[in-house]
Design brief:
single chain, alpha+beta, Cyclic Phosphodiesterase, Chain: A, 4-stranded antiparallel sheet, 6 helices, 6 strands
Length: 253
């Protein structure tokens, strides 16, 4: 997230905290700001399938964007049921391609057998606070986000962000040192780095190649082990032993 947008959200968060210091723990860390395209539950075996789906998604996104940059402007504040506070994505021509990308992502993962997406409509946003992060707030009498806390930011322009990367993140694993979520894999959109993958992408790609090589070696070993113990093979061994015994008996005669 660029400095301008992050700085604006931090000002918003501080304004809310000044009105109720108990809400400080409910604020989203500035390293975690993101737009969620879709949510899914993956077990360990499905993570690699998810990584494959993410890689297959890239050409679909490039086809949607047709070589153009997708600029996302953020303006205004709203809540989900007065429980989750978020900065809104402004309306405009950028909405259609973003919605197409979200649909392409959902379709690509579902075709891989992964149940992805939610029944509710896609509403891109940047979460800046969430009451559920602090369970004791409800016991302390804080049951909703008071609209007066953010009324001065209702029409505030927070800045623009260019879509340049899509990550497959884990919401459960330990976050990175910069506050961002644990990232299983990423795809870079556009030509932000001169067409060359960044260091993080290279590390993830190398890790995945090693994991796939190890997995392939283990599978090959298991297949070879199973083949040695197949009933047909066992019968063959026994027959050879019988032939040898017969030959030995003939030699003894």
């Amino acid at each position: 997230m660029i400095v301008e947008v992050t700085k604006g959200i931090k000002i918003l968060q501080n304004a809310v905290i000044q009105q109720d210091k108990r809400l400080a723990k409910a604020m989203t860390g500035d390293g975690s700001f993101h737009i969620t395209l879709l949510v899914m539950k993956l077990n360990d075996d499905e993570v690699n399938i998810g990584i494959d789906a993410l890689l297959e998604l890239k050409p679909f996104i490039e086809e949607i964007l047709q070589g153009k940059h997708l600029i996302l402007p953020f303006e205004g504040v709203d809540t989900f049921g007065n429980q989750v506070g978020f900065v809104k994505l402004a309306e405009g021509d950028h909405m259609n391609p973003l919605l197409e990308i979200a649909e392409a992502a959902k379709r690509t993962f579902q075709e891989k057998g992964i149940l992805a997406g939610e029944s509710r409509s896609f509403k891109p946003h940047l979460t800046f606070m969430k009451l559920s992060q602090v369970p004791w707030l409800r016991k302390a009498g804080v049951k909703k986000i008071d609209p007066k806390f953010y009324e001065k930011f209702i029409s505030h322009r927070f800045g623009e962000e260019m879509l340049h990367r899509i990550d497959l993140c884990s919401m459960l694993k330990k976050k990175q040192s910069n506050g961002y979520y644990h990232c299983e894999s990423s795809i870079v959109i556009g030509d932000k780095n001169g067409g060359e993958p960044d260091d993080a992408e290279l590390v993830k790609l190398s890790k995945r190649l090693v994991e796939n090589a190890v997995l392939k070696a283990v599978q090959q070993y298991l297949e070879e082990t199973q083949n040695k113990h197949k009933p047909g093979d066992g019968s063959t061994v026994k027959t050879e032993e019988a032939d040898r015994n017969g030959t030995d008996n003939d030699n003894r005669k």
